[in-house]
Amino acid sequence: MTGCDGSDGGRDDREKDGEAESHGDASVDVDRVGKTYRGDRDGDAVRALDDVSFAVDKGEFVCLVGPSGCGKTTLFRIIAGLTDATDGEIRLAGRTVTGPTTDMGVVFQEYHLFPWLTIEENVGFGLERSDRSAAERERRVDEMLDLVGLAEFRGSYPKSLSGGMKQRVAIARALAVDPELLLMDEPFGAVDAQTREMLQRELLDVWESTGKTVLFVTHDVAEAVTLADRIVVMAAEPGRVEEIVDVDVDRPRERGDPTFGEHVARVRELIGAGP
């Protein structure tokens, strides 16, 4: 594991090389995950991911970044249980992930809200098949709407909301089932820069108030440095862990802080994006 100066902080060198050991208290273990796409003819196979390993501890906020073609989206889908790994495995709270589970709340770049349901109904959708009573479900929805600041819009429909508000609904829906992990794939990629920064601040507030474990995929290095405790930096062809960077900057983080800039420069250097 490394700071922005590239030192390993006393951890085993295997962690820096992408062979992180499993953590006994980990919420998520990505254990030697590989993915090969078979072609139509012999020799056409493509190795998209190779021997990817890292752990996310309970309550930790980790960002995943890397260049185009490094397999971030493929890895996200494997962790979410939406596609299978060719080798290796994902463990969530010690249990092997074999498919989608309510132990994960998943948020995509697209909001995926049901336009015919109200905001309240969208947030509560995942609770419909739970063993909670109707009163408990209603109370949980109320809590989530309050958490993301949308209680006054509970009876509105998605078409009446801005992009930022729609994504807050998606986050509330993901959290409503009380998941072990909040898994997010470029969730703020479809909004303007000002809204993006506002949503980043709000997400940190939600994370701090809930204590959830978060794994957040982004192509935006400054976003990763703003949010993360650690950044898993991936390399491409095949996708693999290049390095894991500790973000040892006190929160709230200011982009004008020289230390913030040093971390951004370090991560950009690792992914080949320049200073």
UniProtKB/TrEMBL annotation:
Highest taxon in the source lineage: Archaea
Keywords, in A-Z order: ATP-binding, Molybdenum, Nucleotide-binding, Transport
Domain ABC transporter: 28-261
Molecular function in Gene Ontology: ABC-type tungstate transporter activity; ATP binding
Family as reported in the entry's similarity comment: Belongs to the ABC transporter superfamily. Sulfate/tungstate importer (TC 3.A.1.6) family.
Gene Ontology, cellular component aspect: plasma membrane
InterPro entries, sorted: AAA+_ATPase (IPR003593), ABC_transporter-like_ATP-bd (IPR003439), ABC_transporter-like_CS (IPR017871), ABC_transporter_ATP-bind (IPR050166), P-loop_NTPase (IPR027417)
UniProt catalytic activity: tungstate(in) + ATP + H2O = tungstate(out) + ADP + phosphate + H(+)
EC numbers for this chain: 7.3.2.6
Protein's cellular compartments: Cell membrane
Function, in words: Part of the ABC transporter complex WtpABC involved in molybdate/tungstate import. Responsible for energy coupling to the transport system.
Protein's name according to its UniProt entry: Molybdate/tungstate import ATP-binding protein WtpC
Residue ranges of the region described as Disordered: 1-32
Subunit structure and binding partners: The complex is composed of two ATP-binding proteins (WtpC), two transmembrane proteins (WtpB) and a solute-binding protein (WtpA).
Lineage: Archaea, Methanobacteriati, Methanobacteriota, Stenosarchaea group, Halobacteria
Composition skew (Basic and acidic residues), residue ranges: 8-32
Entry-linked PROSITE patterns: ABC_TRANSPORTER_1 (PS00211), ABC_TRANSPORTER_2 (PS50893)
Matching PANTHER family: ALIPHATIC SULFONATES IMPORT ATP-BINDING PROTEIN SSUB, TAURINE IMPORT ATP-BINDING PROTEIN-RELATED
